């Protein structure tokens, strides 16, 4: 089995109406801020040479009242359900015996505008230990912003497709990047299972 076989892609994750409502909420009610990278001692730092994108974490706890907490909690729980279901499918595909599931996930909405990008990186760090990563591409109507993996001096390019989720191990073997967006806005939701 090749390492690329551990990249799992699921298309048509939500029905059209649910996806439309999710995007409407994100575009109209979510407040974005510059996304940091993990710096020394786990502190987030802004580094526009490594990453340029806007973000907003969502959670089912401690949601600011200004962001309609009930809506945020509802979307968080629906996304956790989606990611848990995909993880079970992933475990079944690979016949994993150790099927540890954890619903206490970090979930963040990302907004990549023209020229935004994220250079090659992995999702597991000393200060952010993660086991499984999820990227849910929400829309089309943009160019660039391709999701690329880097395996043994080869690139695996994942074509952006609206309503598609990519699941993969968070470790150093699955370095990945988001290429610069050249036109339009790319919306995605990423999550990590500890």
How would you explain this protein's 3D organization?
- The protein is α+β, with helices and mostly antiparallel strands and 194 residues long.
- 21% of the residues lie in helices and 34% in strands.
- The protein has two helices and 16 strands.
- The strands form four sheets. Strands 1-13-9-16-7-6-2 form a seven-stranded antiparallel β-sheet, with helices on one face.
- The longest helix has 26 residues, at 69-94.
- The model has no long low-confidence stretch (mean pLDDT 92).
Give a quick precis of the structure:
With 194 residues, this protein is α+β, with helices and mostly antiparallel strands. The chain is 21% helix and 34% strand.
Number of helices in the DSSP assignment: 2
Radius of gyration: 16 Å
The low-confidence runs, each spanning 5 or more residues with pLDDT under 50, are none
* Average pLDDT over all residues: 92
Share in β-strands: 25-35%
Question: How do the helices and strands line up, and which of them pair or pack?
Answer:
Blueprint: E1 8-10, H1 16-29, E2 33-34, E3 37-38, E4 44-45, E5 51-52, E6 54-58, H2 69-94, E7 106-112, E8 117-121, E9 132-137, E10 143-144, E11 147-151, E12 154-158, E13 164-169, E14 176-178, E15 181-183, E16 186-193
Antiparallel strand pairs: 1-13, 2-6, 3-4, 5-8, 6-7, 7-16, 8-14, 9-13, 9-16, 10-15, 11-12, 11-14
């Amino acid at each position: 089995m090749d390492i690329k076989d551990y990249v799992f892609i699921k298309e048509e994750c939500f029905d059209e109406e649910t996806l439309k409502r999710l995007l409407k909420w994100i575009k109209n009610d979510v407040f974005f801020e510059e996304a940091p990278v993990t710096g020394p001692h786990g502190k987030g730092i802004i580094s526009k040479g490594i990453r340029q994108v806007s973000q907003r974490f969502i959670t089912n706890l401690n949601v600011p009242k200004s962001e309609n907490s009930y809506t945020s909690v509802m979307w968080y729980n629906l996304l956790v359900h989606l990611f848990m279901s995909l993880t079970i499918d992933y475990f079944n595909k690979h016949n994993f015996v150790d099927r540890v599931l954890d619903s206490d996930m970090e979930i963040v909405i990302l907004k990549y505008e023209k020229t935004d990008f994220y250079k090659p990186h992995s999702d597991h760090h000393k200060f952010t230990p993660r086991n499984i990563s999820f990227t849910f591409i929400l829309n089309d109507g943009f160019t660039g912003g391709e999701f690329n993996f880097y395996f043994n001096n080869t690139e695996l390019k994942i074509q952006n497709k609206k309503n598609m989720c990519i699941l993969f191990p968070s470790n150093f073997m699955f370095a990945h990047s988001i290429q610069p967006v050249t036109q339009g806005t790319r919306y995605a939701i990423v999550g990590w299972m500890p």
